[in-house]
Each structure stands twice: as structure tokens, then as C-alpha cells.
Amino acid sequence: MKKTLYILIAILFLSCEINHNKKTSNKEPNILFIIADDMGKDALAGYTEGTIKPHTPNIDSIGKEGLSFNNFWTYPTCSPTRASMITGKYGYRTNVRWANQKLSESEILLQKYINKNTDNSYATAVVGKWHISGYDTTINPEKFGIDYYAGIFIGSVKDYYNWPLSEKGKQTISTEYTTKKFTDLASNWIKKQEKPWFMWLAYNAPHTPFHIPPAEMHSQGNLPPYTKDVDPTPYFMASIEAMDFQIGKLLNSMSKEDRENTLIIFMGDNGTEPVVTQAPYTSNQVKRSLYQGGINMPLFVSGKGVERKGMDNNLITSTDIFATIAEIAGVEIDEINDSKSFKSLLSEKKPIRKYQYSEMKNEKKDAWTISNGTYKLLVFANGKEEMYNLINDPYEKNNILNSTLNTIEKKAKEELEIELLRIRN
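User: That's the sequence. What structure does it adopt?
Assistant: C-alpha cells below.
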């Protein structure tokens, strides 16, 4: 009788272990979303643009172990890209179409949306650059429904080693190199979590100023203090390498179980600064422009749930980050606002969008652009238009509107105009 009882207990124990393991393997993934600041394709390995590349083994690994996207569109400056991702809306809907413009406090942000629709199943944090509340430093990002915020409130720092750190609604002065400090804050927060987490980690690197990172974080040699008389490229590359170094530290600080259950998204928010632009882009085709060098940015996805590898040519926009991360977090949705989820691409090859859209508006210029992957149309509020065949002319050297359009080009322009009218109305 005792022997039978022991056998039954053993079976029950094993059954519990099996069920426990099953539950663990199927639990919601952690989501690590990393944003690089002012870093285009010309400054990253894995893309053919640019000839001088930084040493970035950790970022390279994220790309090689999963999917790299070749047609990912953002906005030309920092704030509208971030606003579009965190709301899933085009800039003209939120009135954030240029740097330093303020997002309404009535907007439902991604973190709040996830927890509202998953019974508060995720711990959420934003660490690093915020830059979607203008200059109103009275706003604490946690009021938007984010569990934890720490970082720089506005668009940049004057000194990577002496800058205002905002945390939980209070400001102090940090003298730690920003990239390291953000990594430490993110790592410390992650270690405290007992449920699935979503970390939005927005580095300000490699945004200006070109301040030299600690020597152990880069391979650019013994650089003198930066002045406007020297080539800024090594300083720019050193900043990217320091970010990569810290990303490696963050990943290594995670437990094996956490690391295996984490999906990683890495991206650039807009093109590089003109002073560090590399061919085939020209200095007027990068940051602050709607040309490809300003809005066609790096995007890598790897880790938990990513079954495909290699380059994907789907048309993706920054708004799509919202629905994608929401669906990964368990929200049963594949489209909301102006956002279409590309979660399905992590396991299968299929078309997501027929068109992609971006825009800009500041005191001097009001413009918008649309593409079907082959043709790209730029429209300016002053009536000027440009159109490019991105297959034959990927770096926009030949405006085909300067000559007579053929039948195919005319039809493509008409279709782009119809879709543009639909999007903007």
C-alpha cells in the first residue's frame, strides 16, 4: 500500500513539473526595444550604405540572429518618430511633426494600451531619451501610464558627462557617461521584475555633441577632445561603439531564463547628422529631410518568437511599432490607428502594407511623402513635387517629374496621390 502511495505521489510530482515547465515556456516574452539616436544605415554594419562602419558585435548579432528590415520608414527628426511609435498615429493626427513638439497628455500610449488590454500583465519602463513633451519639464512620463521612467527629458545633452537626469518626476545632475547610466538604470529595473516586462530603452547616442566615450567602450583610439576643426566621424563611431558595448553589458546582465524569453527590437530613429553623412547620401538627404537617408532606417528583430532570419523587404512604418509590440505582448489585434502589426513576419513571409508614409512640418517647410516600394512621391505645401523610382534610383538622384512620365509612371503617380489623399483625410 505504501509503495503504491509513493508511486502516486511521484506521478503527481512529475505531472506538476511537466505542467510548470509548459507554463514557463509559453509565458509572455519580455520585450527589449532599443532606439539609437541619429543613426542611419550608413553608420551600421549589415547595410551597404556607407564605407566606414563602427565595430558593433552586439548589434550585429541582433541582426544576424533574426530579421533585418530594408524598408523601414521613420520621421526625419526625433520627436515625431517617437510619438508615432508610442501612439500608433501619424504625426498630423497628434500634431507632433518636428523635434520638440508636444504630445497631448490625452493620448493613450503603448504601455498603457498594453496593460489595459492584458489585465496589467506587463511591467513597463522607459529609460533614456523622452523628447515628446516639448520643453514642459513639469510632465512626468509616468503620468501616461508607464510604471517607471528615468532619463533625459528633452532632445539632447550639452555634455555626455554632466546632464540633468529625470527620474520619477525629479531632476538631479548625473556625471556618468549617458550611455552607461541608461544601461545601468535599465539593467537594475529589469532585475527587479517578477512578471514579463517591456523596456523602452532610448539612448541619446550617437546624437551630438561628439564627446569621447570611456576608452574601454570603443576602438577609435586615443581621440583628442573634439573641436569643429577635426573630422567628427571617429567620435561619431566611438559613440556608436560605446552604445554597442553597453548593449552587450545589458544582455549579459540578464539571467539565462530572462535572456531566452526576451524579444529584442533595435532601430535608428532618423538619419545621421549632415556632418557625418556618408555616400551614397548627400548632406541634404539625411536627418531633417524626407529623402531615404532621413527616413529609411535600420530595424532588427531577434530573440524569443523570431523564427525567420535574413533581410525582409516589407514596407514598414514607425507607427507599426505600436501594433506589433502590443500583439507580441498578447493583445489580440493586428491593426489600430495608423499602425499595422508585423508580428506575423517573425515566422512567415507575407505582405503587410501596400504603401508607407512619412511627413514633416516646421516653421520653414511643410511636406509629406508616400511610396509603394517602387515609386516614391514627395509633395510640398508650396506646390512643389518630386518623384523617384527607388528600384532604379534608390538614393533619389533623378526626379522623374523633370521629364515626361511614361504610362506606368503616370498611373503610379495617380495611385500614390489617391492613397495620399486617403491617408491625410
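The CA atoms of residues 88 and 328 lie 15 Å apart.
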